[in-house]
Amino acid sequence: MASEDVLRKTLKNADGKPFAKYKGLTNNFVLEDFELIVDEVQNDRAGHTFMRVRVPLKAAGFPEDTHNTPSRDIALRDLIARRFWESARTHARSPIPKTDGGEMFIPRPGQEILDRGCVAITEHYVEVRFTADLPSSGGRVNAEATELLIFERIATVVSESMRYSAYKQSKLYNHLYTAENADYIRSELHKRGLAAFIANGSILPRRDDDLAPMVDAVPFRCVPELEVEMDVPNGPPIAGWGIPEGFNAVVGPSRNGKSVLADAVFAGVYNHIPGDGREYAISVPRATFVISEAGRPASSVDLSMFMATTEDFDATSVTTRSVPSPMSELVAISEAVEMGSSLVVMDEEYSNPCVIRKGFMADDGSYASVSEMASAMGRAGVSVLMVTGDESAVRHADHVFIMKGFQAYPVDVEGRLVNDMLFVMPEPRYPVSKSMEFEKGRKKISTAASSIRVVEMGEQKVSAPMAALFDMSQTRTIADAIAVSKESMDGSKSLLEFCEEAIIALREADAEPGNTAGMYHVGVRPMDIAAFLSRHPQILMIRKG
């Protein structure tokens, strides 16, 4: 640990010398208002330097009640990350004049309140991880500009984001209360026989960039007979539609809110920031959205709950490099339920939940569509929310609702069809990575987030189009978790066990001294890691027993 004087002398001695002299900054510097930790210095002006700033908790001034519960701790760290990003964008978005450096970077938060690895709060300090581009002139150290970066740009960002006094108290607590209320409602859903909850007044339609609600959108409401009231830890009770467990069919004319309702229910696995419009659109934690994915692979997937085994077809262990469209939905449902999903969301605009017995199976009673099986799924603990216009689905549903003008109404259905089907939970699969190639170029293990729902493993790009990923940091987290734990995919752990342990292993790696990747990581669900692995064409899934 070094003083501010040491930092200034180090810069003075390096001034005008080759860029490599910046390596001398790798140290912990105790400055007047914060501690600056330089973990890894960039090799040249094209790279990025990994830094951390720490402010003693007492000096930061955040009261204990802003981070004394898991919900508030996550929400406060999320808010600090947002303010840090906004301040850096304002004060360090462009290079320092007459240099080619000085920018600061932290992953941009989206609309979701997430457990963000770029911010830590301990009993001793508040810490933020970020990168900064050290300024140089003609490829040489520019000491004056670096002092400006540290003592003006970084210091300003720290003062605007890491101190309680910089926040409007009402805004800060609103962020915390919103997250805590949402977590509480989510914890109450199953107790009250609900799969999801949509508060009256929610704004469900999204802007094109998905970073805000649509302007002038019609607020959601439900009729009084559907309304439930949720007590919350902060503020008055919240009223809205309690979507029941079981098979729910949602019908209605187009452009009246059916699809945005389905999207909001799926997005409700995470909390949302105040002003998002979906703050209290909340679903069970392991909800999944199923769409048609023609051509995706499958490895040892159990479809026996939908299809019968024949001489030519083993429904208990479907393995193929290319699954036909309707069957792909059954594969996705089986995989999601295997990972603990208790809510499946489907929209007939993107799927075939009511497909009749044709295409890949004969009309001989050996196949049941999702709409026929959905009520049995509900009885087995896997609820279904299906946006549909199919009469068969409506007659099979436990509950039918119509959306008109973004309002939900109950529908009484005559001639409801009741069956005694059973939905049998799939047995666990055990992943083996032996045949998976992770090498790319000079890297023996290469994984990366190519886009929001595409992970690159070696030369292979794997798409999981309906994984619950809304932030690029989530995708990077999944890519890195797979890389850290790939060797343990040896058939000894179930897919669920592997994914849960991969998240733990990544957190442990992030906590190691000198680790810089943790700033990019956020909370993810095990089932979303599994979504990518299950779609990898080279993975081997085995069954035991």
Describe the structure.
The chain has 545 residues and is α+β, with helices and mostly antiparallel strands. Helix content is 28%, strand content 21%. It has twelve helices and 29 strands. Strands 1, 2, 3, 4, 5, 7 and 8 form a seven-stranded mixed beta sheet that branches. The chain has a seven-stranded mixed beta sheet with strand order 12-24-23-15-22-21-18, with helices on both faces. Strands 13-14-11-17 form a four-stranded antiparallel beta sheet, with helices on both faces. β7 and β8 form a beta hairpin. α1 (4-14) packs antiparallel against α4 and α3 crosses α4. The longest helix has 22 residues, at 70-91. It is globular and about 85 Å long. 50% of the residues are buried.
Give me the Rg, rounded. Answer: 26 Å
Broad shape: globular
State the total count of DSSP E strands.
Answer: 29
Strand content: 15-25%
Count every helix, treating DSSP H or I runs of 4 or more residues as helices: 12
Oligomer: single chain
Mean pLDDT: 95
Q: Strand count, sense and closure of the main sheet? A: 7 strands, mixed
Pick out the low-confidence regions. Answer: 356-362
Structural class: alpha+beta
Termini Cα gap: 57 Å
Helix content percent band: 25-40%
